[in-house]
Amino acid sequence: MATVITPEHFSPVEDAEALKKACKGWGTDEKAIINILGHRNAIQRKQIRQAYEELYQEDLIKRLESELSGDLEKAVYRWILDPVDRDAVLANVAIKKAETEFPVIIELSCIYSPEELLAVRRAYQSRYKRSLEEDVAAHTTGDLRKFLVGLVTTYRYDGPEINERLAKSEADILHEAIKDKIFNHEEVIRILTTRSKAQLKASFNRYRDEHGTSITKKLLKDESNVLQKALHAAIRCIDDPKKYYEKVLRNAIKRSGTDEDALTRVIVTRAEKDLKDLKELYYERNSVALDHAVSKETTGDYKKFLLTVLGKED
């Protein structure tokens, strides 16, 4: 369920005119920009961009980049892009720091449907004139490269069918590899990069039933192993995306010094999908409303923007 609250009356021309006015003169009217864009869905935002360009022969995105700054500028920029272009930008930013920011690549590969991932790869090529997979390969090495390239190039079967015998045999393969700490086992990478989500969930369930603990708990033992961390993130994304995102939010807010990039990424990318569900899960797990946590850990217009997208006025 989405959190964005859109108005009953919508006119892209009126919004474009109001945004032009907000950017005129000595000071930018950030409040007006937030009140308009924070209450528009992706289709409406695209119509506003088109109306603005037709009216003023100017790119609204570039204008807002020049008018805003800091965390607010970054958040509004990601928000106003078409969702598939936003994902391409997020991937590109993450790739440049792929040894630490690989979870962003894993989210796109393991949470998105095969068609959604393909759309991101197309958008990435169009924007950067290179393929997503070649950039991932260029910025990673060894086993992490093999795993991430496998994830971004896959086109998983997306149906519900599962093979129980296969689930048992592959749960056993995963168990043996984790027990022996052979995380770069070719079979482990093959299973996680090619099997359908339904089949993988069946294997994870079989693992839990036979070994009395979840596969992710077994993978948590060594935080220094980057491939192990990547495998752990991929399994969590496939097994329960909402729990995965809730933990990203919790870590972003609770760590010493708020991780604004992670906080912005989850709120902006999930606001029109399942952010309402994430808010409920966050409250269940932390006994504090996500709106309240965001309000406490952020400031100024950046805080106002996030709260608007969360469906909560400050």
UniProtKB/TrEMBL annotation:
Protein keywords: Annexin, Calcium, Calcium/phospholipid-binding, Metal-binding, Repeat
SUPFAM superfamilies documented for this protein: Annexin
InterPro entries found in the cross-reference section: Annexin, Annexin_repeat, Annexin_repeat_CS, Annexin_sf, AnnexinD_plant
Keyword Transferase carried by entry: no
Keyword Metal-binding among record annotations: yes
Binding site for Ca(2+) 2: I253, R255, G257, E297
Domain notes: A pair of annexin repeats may form one binding site for calcium and phospholipid.
Binding site for Ca(2+) 1: G25, G27, E67
GO cellular component, one term: plasma membrane
Residues binding Ca(2+) 3, per UniProt: T298
Coiled coil regions, renumbered to chain: none
PANTHER family xref list: ANNEXIN
Organism: Lithocarpus litseifolius
Pfam families recorded: Annexin (PF00191)
UniProt GO MF annotations: calcium ion binding; calcium-dependent phospholipid binding; phosphatidylserine binding
Family from the record: Belongs to the annexin family.
BP term (GO), one: response to salt stress
Protein name in the entry: Annexin
